[in-house]
Fold this sequence. Notes:
The structure is a homodimer of 356-residue chains.
Chain A lengths: L11 H10 L29 H14 L13 E4 L13 H16 L9 H6 L2 H5 L3 H12 L4 H14 L15 H12 L3 E9 H5 L2 H5 L6 E12 L5 E11 L5 H10 L5 E4 L5 H8 L6 E6 L25 H9 L3 E4 H4 L12
Parallel strand pairs in A: 1-2, 1-5, 2-3, 5-6, 6-7
Antiparallel strand pairs in A: 3-4
Helix pairs in contact in A: 3-6
Amino acid sequence: xxxxxxSPNINRRALISGLALLPALSRxxxxxxxRAQTSQDGQLGSWNDGPAKQAxxxxxxxxxxxxxxxxxxxxxxxxxxxxxxxxxxxHPIYSQIIYCLDRVxxxxxxxxxxxxxxxxxxxxxxxxxxIARLSLRDLEKILVAxxxxxxxEDFEAxxxxxxxxxxxxxxKRPYTELIFQPMLEVMQYLRANGYKTYIVTGGGQDFxxxxxxxxxxxxxxxxxxxxxxxxxxxxxxxxxxxxxxPRLLLNDDRAGxxxxxxxxxxxxxxxxxxxxxxxRQMLEYTGAGEGARLMxxxxxxxxxxxxxxxxxxxxxxxxxxxxxxxxxxEAKKKSWTVISMKNDWKRxxxxxxAER
Amino acid sequence: xxxxxxSPNINRRALISGLALLPALSRxxxxxxxRAQTSQDGQLGSWNDGPAKQAxxxxxxxxxxxxxxxxxxxxxxxxxxxxxxxxxxxHPIYSQIIYCLDRVxxxxxxxxxxxxxxxxxxxxxxxxxxIARLSLRDLEKILVAxxxxxxxEDFEAxxxxxxxxxxxxxxKRPYTELIFQPMLEVMQYLRANGYKTYIVTGGGQDFxxxxxxxxxxxxxxxxxxxxxxxxxxxxxxxxxxxxxxPRLLLNDDRAGxxxxxxxxxxxxxxxxxxxxxxxRQMLEYTGAGEGARLMxxxxxxxxxxxxxxxxxxxxxxxxxxxxxxxxxxEAKKKSWTVISMKNDWKRxxxxxxAER
Lengths: 356, 356
């Protein structure tokens, strides 16, 4: 948070492990953005019975029953959800990074002298192994070139276009369909019980706001994310507009999550959901409040239906949403609930009808 | 917005004209914080019939009537209100500055070596003329010392205590009772018609959030204000907390208002209310959107019931919420509505029963 440079909260190992697995960084023409779906078989219908489902039901009961000593008035019902790896697939690499890499050709077209300048040259080469070897500083240059320097409207239009056309290579579906159906049900269930659901993401705030309402039913003002400054200016005809600047205001990851929650929401959540040590502080902050609190961590232990990674389970540490042993220990000590994708979820995606 | 120092959006002339008028910077014991009141005589009951009231009624009709070509879906109904001079009294000096000056003795008590250091020495002297001569840099030191360096909770507790005890010297009432009743009615009227009302203030976001819900019916997450960063840390027992830092994230004044709206709200308001050139960009930004938009400026032209200031009407320019001729001209050119406190409002405060 002390740097005013755009500081990507992704890391080199994520890039290496991620990009090497990607078959291509290609666009596909038109496909619909997924919509939040109501569970077909009632509330939390995609959850197996077990301690995780029970923890959610008990939390809602305790905080919404007026006769409960842990009753929380409706205006204080705030729930915070990490996005990458908690609400949608983050493996092998964050979707927003793919967006940035996909945008490089258009950036170079607009500024042709970048064609022979690194790291743009390497990205244009399409050589995945070389791209995977790019340094963090190089990646930062790509983020700055593709996420800033344009008007807020131009960015929205470009990202929206990409979201409806780009497809994940494994599932051959738009990224916005790779939403964890059980988590959508938790969001809907909490909202039905008077909770305001917020997304609190290390991803770009402006990026996630483009689809948050359509995909998660979360309005733009309830998205807290990594955010850069904007600059107010005027077009030649006097119309004002905002330009996205490469000036980091909020690095909404790790300690930045409670800091971002204070900045944008202004009060402590009663429930928080994450999947990695980037969410640790948010869960600690949530848990430090009085009364009933719900802290949950999604564990990616389902190699068949999604992915399995994270050292807490002796699974490979890909550094995307890492779940180290220390986080597992803290979760156990503080009675946070670990959600096993393999055991707790009947289905992973809305399009996945298989039940366990 | 480029400085990372705490940059007060108040100025020296405001301080000079303001402090010289204050009889004392004193606390008074216990008095209730004002509550938002429903108008006694129906919607907009404190408004005289006229073009200002008409503009509000027509805007709401056009944007909420499903058969209107200017209909706005409920989820897009955002209204932004400046605070100082628009929702409550700002003359002769912003209440938050009085809070900061009132806090100086406690700050010095905690750090006694400041006793003989400027500007604290001057503030402690109580000599109003000397205080009024303090430079902007001195004032900045006072803001940093009184608004940062403590936990979010400690700040809230202190400010809350002050708000219930400090009284405005003219009306002998808590500052939170010096709310413009007609504006409260506009907020309530908009909310009753599906609008989400936001406060977008140059004042401190954390300060205004303390009373926004109780006084205006605006929840904390709907307050956008000048905001510093916080720093996540742990007490000795491991409990996490946030410390308010002297690192400016958002200077929510002038161009900072649309920038702050983008950061916190993420979309363009359909209605915006201000009273000075600090609100110009917010009104421009609001007006640049498509469809029906409502832009209003409160003109302080009622010396008897409140204050009269602003050069647009040949009134003295005190630099608190200045209303220059250029703003008046822009308002006229762009069909923004200027509200005359003298002519458009039947009463100024809830406690003021006199009708014009």
